[in-house]
Amino acid sequence: MQKIETGVKDVYILIPEIHGDSRGWFVETWSKKTMEELDLHYDFVQDNESFNLQKDTLRGLHFQAGDASQAKLVRCVKGIVMDVCVDLRKDSPTFLKWTKAILSAETKHMLIVPRGFAHGYITMTPGAQFIYKVDNFYNPAAERFLRWNDPEIGIDWGCDNPILNERDANNPFLKDIQEELF
Question: What integer is the mean pLDDT of 16-35?
């Protein structure tokens, strides 16, 4: 497994080793031992999966506040997504910086998103399927949101009119959630 820096503190692209032969392929997507050898220390407690019918479906930006914050190991198992995370940690040298990674079923690349980040993705193909591990259980009372197109953050999603649900279309702007930042 390779660990590639993204330019945002503590966010890494992980490139697994793919073992293939005439039967197909095998890839290790999670090993506590391998992650610790890469100096990544996470105890994941829950797996989540989402399916997206259409290209340009945007989910996010979401995060869990306070003690309910979640680190994530994310990957795309069908199709292609552009995954985005925003550093909301006030004491971080990359505070309010964002990074993106193209994740696909073909490359099997993964992204580590630590606690203290808003997270979202946009589908680049129809039928994209996305899975992720989290290190803290979902807490509906701690769920928070950040507007996908907040000009203060300036994320380039590669799409001006994504498909959004009503909630994500109306998420608050950064200026309205200052007390929720880490």
Answer: 95
Q: Which domains does the chain have, with CATH numbers?
A: 2-180 (2.60.120.10)
Could you say which DSSP state residue 39 is in? T
Identify whether 132 is a catalytic site residue.
Answer: yes
pTM: 0.94
**Helix (H, G, I), strand (E, B), or coil: what is residue 44?**
coil
Catalytic site residue from 12, 41, 62, 109 = 62
Catalytic residue among 12, 42, 121, 132: 132
What percentage of residues in the chain have a pLDDT greater than 90?
Answer: 98
Q: Which residues are 101's β-sheet partners? A: 83
Backbone angles phi, psi at 141, to 5 degrees: -70, -20
pLDDT score, position 180: 86
> If 0-12 CB within 10 Å is exposed, 13-18 middle and 19+ buried, where does residue 123 land?
buried
Predicted pLDDT at 84: 98
What count of Cα atoms within 13 Å lies in the side-chain half-sphere of residue 136? 17
